[in-house]
Specification:
Helices cover 11% and strands 48% of the residues. It has 209 residues and is mostly beta strands.
């Protein structure tokens, strides 16, 4: 639920009215874009030193969800078959990288992930991804093309990548919602209140003359 605040001042009187409505819609988004990639490496990034390790992104081809809703923006899988535990000290190193997570709905926008890289072992991972921007939409806010309308998508900072032996993928969590427009009856109430305040202020000014 979203709230919009309207402030109006007449004769040193401040009126604050809260307008609220519930969003309900269905959106389709697609993260399996040609631009969803590690720069220069496709969907899989390889380690730069030590045992061979890979970090692979698996996108969501298409997904339909209600609004508001939690969403899955894809997942990362870290693998290193020859890495030892951190205690034994045989790990792989990833250089810094950038990852573009492109989301397509009625518009297209990009969550840009950056990482300083780091060393990984079978039981430990120093890799995390920071996202910017954290919000795509509404309208053309942070859009690469098109218009999201009232819909906006968010992701959370940051995404820590699970160690290879964690037995699962690291999901990129997100949320989708809409900016709720006030109902016509609410607009009427606001207009009536403002007109009433205008007449009150005018009457006071007339008496003071």
């Amino acid at each position: 639920m979203k709230s919009t605040f309207l402030a109006h001042t007449i004769s040193a009187t401040v009126l604050v009215i809260t307008l609220a409505a519930t969003a309900s819609a269905t959106v389709t988004y697609n993260t399996d874009s040609i631009d969803s990639k590690f720069v220069g490496f496709g969907q899989t990034l390889s380690s730069t030193s030590g045992p061979v390790a890979t970090l692979t992104y698996q996108g969501i081809p298409d997904f339909v969800t209600g609004v508001p809703s939690s969403i899955n923006l894809g997942a990362f899988q870290l693998e290193c078959d020859l890495c030892s535990t951190q205690e034994n000290g045989l790990g792989a190193t990833f250089d810094s990288f950038v990852f573009n997570l492109v989301l397509n709905s009625t518009a297209s926008g990009t969550f840009v992930g950056t990482s300083t890289g780091g060393q990984v072992f079978s039981d430990a991972s120093a890799i995390s991804i920071l996202w910017s921007p954290l919000t795509l939409g509404p309208g053309t806010n942070n859009a690469d093309s098109g218009d999201f309308g009232a819909t906006f998508f968010t992701t959370s900072n940051f995404t820590p990548i699970l160690a290879p032996n964690a037995g699962g993928q690291t999901t990129v969590e997100g949320f989708v919602d809409e900016v709720a427009a006030p109902e016509p009856s609410t607009y009427a109430m606001v207009s009536a209140a403002l007109v009433g305040m205008w007449f009150t202020a005018k009457r006071r000014n007339t008496r003071g003359k």
